[in-house]
Amino acid sequence: QVQLVESGGGLVPPGGSLRLSCVASGSIFSRSAMGWYRQAPGKQRELVATVTADGNTHYIDSVKGRFTISGDTEKNRVYLQMNNLKPEDTAVYYCNGPALIAAGVSSWGQGTQVTVSS
């Protein structure tokens, strides 16, 4: 079972920036693209961005141009640089891999809280 640990969240004002980090207990990019998910209070968890081992990325429309996902295939780490944060970005952020989830070989971490508020 792949364990995932997220960090880097915090409280920032609108327009601020944060860099989230995720470390996995085992090899991840060989088995799945990796992604950042978020869950706001009262809402379903959504996939925000993904990155593949060869660097291909995908973002949902609401974060395009503001968020940048990257991965370190050797260190089994995934990052999310978030700029120009908005109050609607407030959520708990998690990392995981869609294929890992589908195969049932990863566990959700505790996530990291991002709060955007003045």
Short summary:
The chain has one helix at 98-103; strands at 4-7, 10-12, 18-24, 34-39, 46-51, 57-59, 67-72, 77-82, 91-96, 112-116. The chain is mainly beta.
Question: How would you characterize this protein structure?
Answer:
This protein is mainly β and 118 residues long. The protein is 5% helix and 44% strand. The chain contains one helix and ten strands. The strands form two sheets. The chain has a six-stranded mixed sheet. Strands 1-3-8-7 form a four-stranded antiparallel sheet, with no helix packed on it. The longest helix is centred in the last third of the chain and has 6 residues, at 98-103.
Stretches where pLDDT is under 50 for at least 5 consecutive residues are none
Structural class: mainly beta
General shape: globular
> In percent terms, what proportion of residues is strand?
35-45%
Number of helices, counting only DSSP H or I runs of 4 residues or more: 1
**What is the N-to-C succession of helices and strands?**
EEEEEEEEEHE
User: What strand order characterises the main sheet?
Assistant: 2-10-9-4-5-6
Whole-number average pLDDT?
A: 95
User: Helical percent range?
Assistant: under 10%
| Major β-sheet annotation | 6 strands, mixed
Rg, nearest Å: 13 Å
**DSSP E strands, number:** 10
Terminal residue distance: 39 Å
Question: What descriptors fit this protein?
Answer:
single chain; 118 residues; 4-stranded antiparallel sheet; mainly beta; 6-stranded mixed sheet
Task: Note the topology.
Elements: E1 4-7, E2 10-12, E3 18-24, E4 34-39, E5 46-51, E6 57-59, E7 67-72, E8 77-82, E9 91-96, H1 98-103, E10 112-116
Parallel strand pairs: 2-10
Antiparallel strand pairs: 1-3, 3-8, 4-5, 4-9, 5-6, 7-8, 9-10
